[in-house]
Specification:
The complex is a heterodimer of chains A (891) and B (116).
Chain A (H helix, E strand, L loop, with lengths): L1 H20 L4 H21 L4 H12 L2 H12 L2 H19 L1 H30 L10 E8 L10 E2 L1 H10 L3 E15 L4 E9 L3 H5 L5 E2 L14 E4 L1 H8 L9 E4 L2 E8 L11 E4 L16 E7 L5 H18 L8 E7 L2 H39 L1 H9 L4 H37 L15 H28 L3 H4 L13 H34 L9 E6 L9 H16 L4 E7 L9 E6 L9 E7 L3 H4 L4 E4 L4 H5 L4 E5 H7 L9 E4 H5 L8 E8 L14 E5 L8 E7 L7 H11 L6 E5 H45 L1 H9 L4 H33 L12 H27 L3 H6 L2
Parallel strand pairs in A: 4-9, 6-8, 15-20, 17-19
Antiparallel strand pairs in A: 1-10, 1-11, 2-10, 3-4, 3-7, 3-10, 5-8, 6-9, 7-8, 12-21, 12-22, 13-21, 14-15, 14-18, 16-19, 17-20, 18-19
Helix pairs in contact in A: 2-3, 5-13, 6-11, 6-13, 6-14, 6-23, 7-10, 11-14, 11-16, 11-23, 13-14, 16-23, 16-25, 16-26, 17-22, 23-26, 25-26
Chain B lengths: L5 E2 L2 H15 L2 E2 H12 L3 E2 L2 H13 L3 E7 L5 E7 L1 H32 L1
Parallel strand pairs in B: 1-3
Antiparallel strand pairs in B: 2-5, 4-5
Helix pairs in contact in B: 1-3, 1-4, 2-3
Classes of the chains: A alpha+beta (891), B alpha+beta (116).
Chain lengths: 891, 116
């Protein structure tokens, strides 16, 4: 037994050796044979034959030289690969001869594979491996969750003492790091800019396992008391703010009043805590509680291998309970520790969307496969004779199967190549349309190794799926049947016919669902764009002015900065109006209880309020219904005057003239530095402006002069004549001219800001659905076409008879198209029902459009019907042109 | 098929070649074919080409070795000779063959006795 295995092994190694060596030894062998033949012939001549007779006799005695050579090859080399190469060449040749078929198949597969690849790379880069950090799958953060609150609420920040306690006494982490945020004002020669900074604990960069791109990361010595202040910069910041200038390395920067040396620049994908700059800081123990804590640390731990989140939760709960005994006020009465994976916070909701989309894409790929399977089946029937002949000549069934599989593989590889190309382009589109705040900053969406491997696997899998079915069917046939000639009746291939029809029906249903979804999202997006904001966002430049808290404590200090600044900006060329406000429209306004003089009410009255400068209404082109805007004197004297919106007037002062009435905001009474007398006189009513986003009804709102109590950051808004982005530098110079210690933060245009906040999400959904809807439609067209082509080819004989008996071309055309459209209609009904049910589930995503929106339904149905009709018409026309004589002779 | 001549089984040919090389030492393909022809006294039908397939197979198993030399009539020829491993294999196969042919012979004799 063992010797047998041994000898087999020896034979195999010999084969492998021969395969690797190629054909080098064939010549030698031929010489040997020639020698032998000659010797034999000479012997025969010696026996008295003529030369010719001798040669022939020698050959007879020697046997079939070709067969011998093949035997030898079989012994000497891996015949499988040899013939595989042969099959491959043959497949390429036949596909080249059927360019139409090959092109349609490759395009179909390319669309399917491309869509799958694109979505998979988004999923891979956003969900599976968004972080470039060492063992990023084991990085977790802990949250103190109040069990009486909703799922996502909880404290994620810790005092230095809490951090040290967790770091030193836990049993579940093999590494731990923490960051504390710090808004950084970077002062340079011309003025001040704002950066987002993070203090990080010792060992942070080792924790993430990422070295610096240029320079070095923070080292233990940087954390020593009295060490020279240093910092590390993010790649993006370096590129965007400093144009990637390497000479800034090792130079000093004044950051929050401290001169720090830049010692390193991190690689592009390092984005811990989303900070621009990282400072070294060692947390130190103190007796202070959470409220008095000098800084709040967000901590990140790396779970030991084999440690579960549950174990970590249990371990950290023990520590938290101990901490809660020292500072009970810092912990909720009932709490648990939740351990969450890094990234969970960012992509939570996006995850479901992406997996849904992957599902849809998977279905698209399945459609593509079944289409190509149908195409191949249609082609296989016309090749039946070829296969039968091959089988008769001795090709084994496996060999035939393999030939078809190789053809399928060639198509799949072509499709994969096209798919990668499409995915590459599609990704650019996706990334551009993707709402940026939904993905982790570290993730870079691109085609990478795992993604390409995925594509390759998909390609092989598709080849198996669409190649095997027709291959099995055509290789199973009785050899005699196709060769016998006119073995074809009218009902050739009805078996499996219902399956093909079902596939087409499913395709139509799915693609109609996608199309309707895309249509509804588009309508909803258009409706969203059509929602009147109540203000004109075009030609408005906006930025945030974060005022340094130490120098801007009082309202007087704030207005001493704002007043000259607005006056300067007003004189810039192209500037129409400039104003400041406590918030950006159309969200984020604070809310207050309100009383209106002379009106009593049972329930609590609420209003949103906003503090603005006089020109605010003019900058945003907010229309006055009654009364007037704030005068300069009212602003500078901080008079108790107010402007209300239409909703306010209608709700709280119906059928009365609001102008002259007085209102009191409870919120202002309780604020620090309270104004004892906070009754405000209404001097104007403006048209409604969106103040809770686009989808929620407008709430009552009050505007007050900013001078009555402005602190902190101010939103600057400037209306211009030209493109508002162009005045950014001029505005920044003006800001610095008034106070070089103030930064112009987040400069952009109001349109851009609104678009990013309000429209990016819906636009992404709509773009995605539209793309898939289009792909679906194309695939359905191919699908209907391939099935119709197949069934008409099958029926050529029948059509011939019909035509011989007097049927006109038009009758045949009608017959074929009718049959096709019947299947399509079934799919449409299914798709309509499906999308109406599905629509109910995602109703909330639609604004200003019903899920049964007749226009969308009609348009998409019409579109699909037309494409399907065209798909039917092409094979139908071919069938109608059939010459009855040819068709009857057709075997 | 010619009734007087029998086809040669593949394994049998291998064994015959091994034995031939064992008996005559180094030999080329033509010589082996002649020897088998001579020994079998024309009873065995042999496509002489198959000798080469057999030689290759034996070579791959490491039972024979080949080297180029000059034949009796001064031609370049490949000479095959049996290796140590081939020697062992020959012993093994010979024993096997004797055992099996003994059994088959007995069975056939038994059948013959019954008939007669």
């Amino acid at each position: 037994m063992s010797t047998q295995r041994e000898s087999k092994l020896r034979a195999s190694t010999a084969k492998l050796r021969g395969f690797l060596r190629g054909r080098r030894h064939d010549g030698e062998f031929d010489d040997e044979i020639q020698e032998h033949l000659q010797s034999l012939a000479e012997r025969f001549v010696a026996q008295g034959m003529t030369r010719e007779e001798a040669a022939a006799a020698a050959r007879r005695q020697f046997g079939n030289v070709t067969l011998l050579r093949e035997d030898r090859r079989d012994l000497q080399t891996l015949l499988f690969f040899d013939t595989l190469w042969h099959d491959l060449r043959y497949a390429l040749r036949t596909l080249w001869k059927n360019q139409g078929f090959a092109a349609v198949s490759i395009a179909t597969l390319g669309l399917g594979i491309g869509a799958a690849t694109a979505i998979f790379s988004v999923i891979d880069n956003v969900l599976l491996a968004p972080f470039p950090y060492r063992d990023s799958g084991r990085l977790v953060f802990a949250r103190i969750h109040n069990t009486q609150q909703s799922e996502k609420d909880g404290r994620q920040g810790y005092t230095p003492t809490e951090f040290l306690e967790i770091a030193e006494t836990n049993h579940v982490f093999d590494g731990i790091t923490a960051a504390a945020e710090d808004l950084v004002l970077y002062k340079h020669g011309e003025g001040t800019e704002q950066l987002y900074g993070a203090h990080v604990t010792p060992g942070t960069f080792e924790f993430f396992g990422m070295p610096a791109l240029h320079g070095r990361v923070l080292q233990p010595t940087d954390y020593e008391p009295g060490a020279p202040p240093v910092f590390v910069m993010r790649y993006k910041t370096w590129i965007e703010r400093f144009n990637g200038d390497l000479s800034i390395l090792n130079s000093t920067f004044e950051l929050n009043g401290i001169r720090r040396t830049l010692v390193g620049i991190m690689p592009p994908r390092f984005g811990w805590y989303d900070a621009d700059v990282w400072f070294p800081k060692k947390p130190t123990r103190s007796g202070e509680g959470f409220a008095e804590s000098p800084e709040i640390w967000f901590l990140l731990g790396r779970l030991k291998p084999e440690t579960t989140s549950q174990q970590a939760q249990a371990d950290l709960t023990v520590i938290a309970n101990r901490l809660a005994r020292i500072h009970p006020q810092d912990f909720p009465e009932h709490f648990t520790i939740q351990v969450r994976k890094l990234g969970d916070t960012v992509v939570g909701r996006f995850q479901a969307t992406l997996y849904t989309v992957l599902g849809a894409v998977g279905l698209l790929l399945l459609i593509a496969c079944s289409n190509v399977a149908n195409l191949m089946l249609a082609r296989a029937t016309t090749r039946e004779k070829e296969f039968a002949l091959r089988a008769v000549l001795g090709a084994g069934r496996m060999r035939l199967l393999r030939l078809l599989m190789v053809e399928g593989l060639v198509l799949a590889m072509g499709g994969a190549m096209l798919g990668i190309f499409l995915a590459w382009g599609g990704l650019k589109l996706l990334v551009a349309a993707m709402p940026q705040n939904l993905i982790p900053t570290e993730s870079v969406i691109e085609l990478n190794g795992p993604v390409l491997t995925f594509t390759l696997c998909i390609a092989v899998l598709t080849a198996l799926m669409f190649g095997l079915a027709p291959a099995l069917q055509s290789s199973r046939r009785d050899l005699n049947d196709p060769l016998r000639g006119s073995g074809k009746g009218t009902s050739g291939g009805t078996e499996g016919g219902w399956l093909r029809d079902a596939v087409v029906m499913a395709e139509v249903a799915l693609s109609l669902t996608l199309l309707i979804g895309a249509g509804l999202l588009m309508r909803s997006f258009v409706a969203l764009r059509g929602v009147h904001l109540g203000l004109r966002a075009d030609h408005v430049f906006q930025a945030l002015l974060p005022l340094p808290a130490d120098r801007y404590k009082t309202t007087e200090q704030v207005s001493k900065f704002i007043r000259p600044l607005l006056a300067r900006i007003q004189t810039l060329p192209g500037v129409v109006e400039a104003a400041v406000s406590s918030d950006f429209p159309p969200f984020g306004l604070p809310e207050s209880k309100i009383d209106v003089a002379g009106r009593t009410h049972q329930e609590e009255w609420q209003t949103l309020f906003q503090q603005v400068s006089g020109q605010y209404f003019r900058v945003l082109r907010i229309e006055f219904k009654k009364g007037r805007e704030f005068s300069d004197a009212e602003i500078s004297d901080a008079r108790k005057v107010a402007v209300v919106n239409d909703t306010f007037a209608r709700k709280y002062l119906p059928n009365e003239d609001p102008v002259g009435r007085r209102v009191r905001l409870a919120m202002l009474d309780t604020q620090a530095g309270a104004r004892r007398e906070s009754w405000f006189e209404i001097i104007g009513v403006v048209a409604d402006v969106r103040n809770r986003g686009l989808e929620v009804p407008i709430e009552p709102q009050v505007w007050l002069p900013y001078t009555i109590g402005a602190t902190g950051a101010q939103a600057l808004m400037v209306r211009t004549l030209q493109d508002p982005a162009t005045i950014m530098n001029a505005v920044r110079r003006d800001v610095w001219a008034v106070d070089s210690g103030v930064a112009l933060a987040f400069p952009s245009t109001l349109e851009e800001r609104i678009s990013e906040r309000l429209y990016a999400g819906p636009r992404f959904g709509f773009v995605l659905m539209a793309i898939f809807g289009c792909i679906g439609t194309i695939l359905v067209t191919v699908g209907v076409y391939s099935v119709m082509a197949y069934s008409t080819t099958q029926k050529t004989h029948e059509i011939g008879i019909r035509m011989a008996l007097g049927a006109e071309g038009a009758d045949v055309l009608g017959m074929v198209v009718k049959k096709g459209l019947r299947v399509v209609a079934g799919g449409m009904a299914l798709g309509l029902a499906f999308s109406l049910t599905l629509g109910k589930l995602i109703e909330t995503q639609f604004v200003g459009v019903a899920t049964y929106d007749p226009l969308t339904l009609a348009a998409t149905t019409l579109l699909l019907t037309m494409t399907a009709a065209i798909a039917c018409w092409i094979p139908a026309r071919k069938a109608a042109r059939v010459d009855p004589l040819v068709a009857l002779r057709y075997e | 098929m010619d009734t007087k001549r029998s086809d040669v089984l593949q394994g049998t040919l291998d064994l015959m070649i091994l034995k031939t090389l064992h008996a005559l030492g180094s030999l080329h393909g033509f010589g082996i074919a002649r020897r088998i022809e001579q020994v079998s006294r024309d009873v065995l039908q042999l496509n002489e080409g198959t000798v080469y397939t057999s030689l290759l197979r034996l070579q791959q198993q490491g039972w024979i070795a080949a080297e180029w030399g000059t034949s009796e009539n001064n031609r370049k020829a490949k000479f095959y000779s049996i290796t140590k491993r081939g020697q062992k294999q020959l012993d093994l196969e010979t024993k096997n063959w004797e055992r099996i042919s003994g059994v088959i012979g007995r069975v056939l004799r038994l059948e013959g006795e019954k008939e007669s």
